[in-house]
Amino acid sequence: MLRFKLFAFIFFIIGCRLNAQSTVWLDKLDLSVATQGNGKPGINTSVDGKKLTIAGEIFDRGFGTHAESSLLIKLNGKAQKFSALVGLDDEMKGHEPAVEFEIYGDNKKLWSSGIMHLGDKAKPVSLSLKGIKQLELVVTDGGNGPYYDHANWVNAKFETNGIATLETFNPIASEPYILTPKPAATPRINSAAVYGVRPGSPFLFRIAATGDRPMAFSAKNLPEGLQLDPETGIITGKIDAKGTYEVELAAKNAKGLASKKLRIEAGDRIVLTPTMGWNSWNCFGHEVSADKVKRAADALVKSGLVNHGWNYINIDDSWQYNRDGKDPSFKGKMRDENGYILTNSKFPDMKNLGDYIHGNGLKMGIYSSPGPWTCGGCAGSYGYEKQDAQSYAKWGVDYLKYDWCSYGGVIDGLPDNDPSKVPSLAFQGGSDPDKGVKPFRLMGNLLKQQPRDIVYNLCQYGMGDVWKWGDEINAQSWRTTNDITDT
Predict the structure, then answer these.
(1) Which CATH superfamily is domain 20-169 in?
(2) Among 89, 345, 414, 426, which lies 20 to 30 A Cα-Cα from 170?
(3) What are phi and psi of 485, to 5 degrees?
(4) 388 is catalytic
């Protein structure tokens, strides 16, 4: 009898230990907090919302994501093990994605899949998590850029001690914080030390200076053709001759005097320092309007950012008419009889808007696509590049963001050049690797012919090693990656 009770007790202990372990599936956690290069996190689906499929094998459970991807999970030492299968989703057949899956525990790399390609069989991972407080599941690009990198963590699960709550989280701070020290009351000039302009182009430079107002500005050795407003510190005019001009700027208030040298390079190159400013998209998206843009310009001045050198006010997508926008303001004739683009009713007078922005010593940017449609379905520049470049100059545009979008459809011969289609990778080789560069070169040449300086930004996600040829086609800046996220 005693022996029976002893065995019963042992089985009870073993049973408790077995029951103390629990399984937590990754797809049951909040995956919406994951950051990734494109699309939305898929819960038991791929990025495109389809069945999770790796090398022909279909899986019911998992997390579909897109490189670059990161998912942070608080374990607090409660998880014993993590296991999963990883691989690229078959929905990207016809392309050449490559990724590497990585797992970090308390910021130390625990595991890596190595470079994986489309068609590779799902690779298993099984890790001990004893003592780990925080886990990060990462997908990086495989060295050929984050394009079409639809990656899957399938059958992913945790073994925990008892019933444990695991929590995903986003590293973005929930409370706003400002670490910038308050500027001193005495003057300080924060402008760049060099400025590039083409001879004959309108010159616009606002001396960026912090310090108590009122403040008086002055400049020694300004080249002929330029004038300074002593109250605002805005320099305007034109320089007719090529050359290097050494100017000494000064700012004075009741608390003191500051000076700084400015080298003006009048020649073939513009944008000798990085552009700094504001873009409408993340704030307003399709709801942007001339009034909102004017208020953004006002805010740049009132907030004091302009005193630190922030001076571009860039209008992103949706200043044009939209082919399928439900908003009545988006419906209308997209171009006039001569092919010149028309602005939607939220932008009744683009020239007036440009004058307003310039009146604050700021510069105006605009947005288009080399394809027939922008990413948001508005009128692009395809076939009307010359008219658009001329319109930008007429309106007083200082910056053009030229977004790849539907030009992939032009190359691939899509009948509707649908901007929602995945962009072509024509940059990456084939019989004519230049065809991806061609539309950007065309607009670059046209912008250079205009009677004003227009910064040319190539928004083509770094495809085709844009840094090797961007400068040659008269661009001054270009993206090197897919979309980034605010982490």
Answers:
(1) NPCBM/NEW2 domain (2.60.120.1060)
(2) 89
(3) -120, 160
(4) no
